[in-house]
Amino acid sequence: MLRNILRPISVRVKESQLMTNFQGRSFKPVYLDHNATSPLAAELRPLALEWLDRWGNPSSIHQWGRGPKSIMREARNHFSQMIGAHPLEVVFTSGGSEANNQALKSAFFHLSRQGSERRQYLISAVEHPSVMKTMEFLAGLGAEVLTVPVSRQGLLDLDTLRSYLGPKTAMVSVMYANNETGHIFPIKKISEWAHEVGAWVHCDAVQALGKVPVDVKSWGVDLASFSGHKFYSLKGAGALYVRKGFPLESLIHGGGQERGRRAGTENVLAIAALGHMARRRDQVQDQFLRLRALRDQMEKEILSQISGVRVNGPDNLRLPNTSSLILDGVDGETLLMNLDLEGFAVSTGAACSSGNPEPSPVLMAMGLTREEAQSSLRLSLGWDSTEEEVESFVRALKAVVERLRKIKRESTKLEQKQKERL
Ligand SMILES: Cc1ncc(COP(=O)(O)O)c(C=O)c1O
Predict the structure, then answer these.
(1) Domain interval for residue 353
(2) Total structural domains in the chain?
(3) Ligand 1 centroid distance, CA of 291 (Å)
(4) What is the chain's mean pLDDT, rounded?
(5) 354 domain residue, yes or no
(6) Fewer CB atoms inside 10 Å of the end CB: C or N, the chain?
(7) Which residues neighbour 249 within 8 Å (Cβ) at sequence distance 6 or greater?
(8) Which residue among 281, 296, 311 closes a domain?
(9) pLDDT for position 3
(10) Is residue 305 located within the same domain as residue 261?
(11) Ligand 1 site, residue 171, Cβ cutoff 6 A
(12) pLDDT tens digits for 194-208?
């Protein structure tokens, strides 16, 4: 089905053992939820043991400090090259949420302390909760938050964004790509407009790493957030790109780590893992092409084999690995659980809100009805995804959707009969 596309890259030790479901049937699990988190790259396992042996504190002057210090230096060099920044423009954090918090709170605290008139913060209506909730918090301290709507396709209303910009704008914070629909925002243009009125620009680029080539300088942003666990490395490390000269405030006060911009003894192991994966930056473009072909083929097969399916988001301008679907007449959570039993890991939206019965705020902001949002499924491929996995997923999805729709039809008929009897 999917010929002539580049080969997958082995990033994880594929589960060699088959799993057994509750009916006693064996299956090979298939992971299609890379936007929630990615598997740990296989090559990091032996390296992690080596790094763990260099357990000293990187701030120590003696020999035990020198090993971890050089690990940190190397990681910073590789990571900064991957995002097109200078090594000193990288502040390592615990992950994307912390980086987003620091970017927004730092701007607000700095400007408030200066008694600045700039109190307006522009965000898109589909930002991650780590941006949304931070802005809610800052609104309680006096920030004015202006939310820019998106269209049914998830496109940002650029006219509204532009009309909001002015001498009171402190910062524009727009994500590089949406975690649920994969939609990519025009960050370069947004940076230019914001800078014209003297505002700063922050970009939550957590979903960009490893999926699209990243170049913070050409994006023109002042700050950008990244997370290691979305890029085949460990949880517990991320980064904030801070343009040289930006007056960054620390959120965590204490020692002088990260040049006083983020106190606390560093998570050397997770930072080393992120730095190591950044060495593979040259593979991003190839994987972009491979995953886009694989995702497009998957969507084509799903749309041709299963009726009543629509794709959320625009055709182009999407992350190459992400597919957000509406499956008419099927409850997303039920579908997810049934697919899980068959060995396929997918999601109904952001991982941090699963278990929440409310429909995805991102899909609701795009103007989907509650029913449509609750019938949605997010599929996200990764560097290790294969044609065979996608083919078996499409087969399983077709079977599960048909089964669930049949059950629904039969229960509706039953209900009607019962009503008629009354
Ligand atoms: C767009 C976006 N921003 C921020 C985050 C938070 O990153 P982390 O899990 O590293 O805190 C996520 C995680 O899902 C995300 O998708």
Answers:
(1) 19-41+282-421
(2) 2
(3) 21
(4) 93
(5) yes
(6) C
(7) 102, 105, 106, 109, 110
(8) 281
(9) 40
(10) no
(11) no
(12) 999 999 999 999 999
CB 393 within 8 A of CB 32: yes
Residue 33 DSSP class: B
Kindly indicate the confidence band of residue 352, based on its pLDDT and cuts at 50, 70 and 90. low
Residues facing 201 on adjacent strands:
172
Please tell me if the CB atom of residue 175 comes closer than 6 angstroms to any atom of ligand 1: yes
Are both 122 and 269 inside the same structural domain?
Answer: yes
Contact 119, 168 (CB under 8 A): yes
Q: How far apart are CA 264 and CA 241, in angstroms?
A: 18
Ligand 1 centroid, distance to 226 Cα (angstroms):
8
Calculate mean pLDDT across residues 219-242: 98
Q: Is the CB of 182 under 6 A from ligand 1?
A: no
User: Is residue 197 a contact partner of residue 305, using CB atoms and an 8 Å limit?
Assistant: no
Split at pLDDT 50, 70, 90, the class of 56 is: very high
Which pair of structure tokens corresponds to residue 137?
């918090």
Token digits of residue 76:
């910073």
102: tokens are 């620091």
Sheet strands side by side (includes 309-312): 309-312, 322-327, 376-380
Count of Cβ atoms closer than 10 Å to residue 386 Cβ: 16
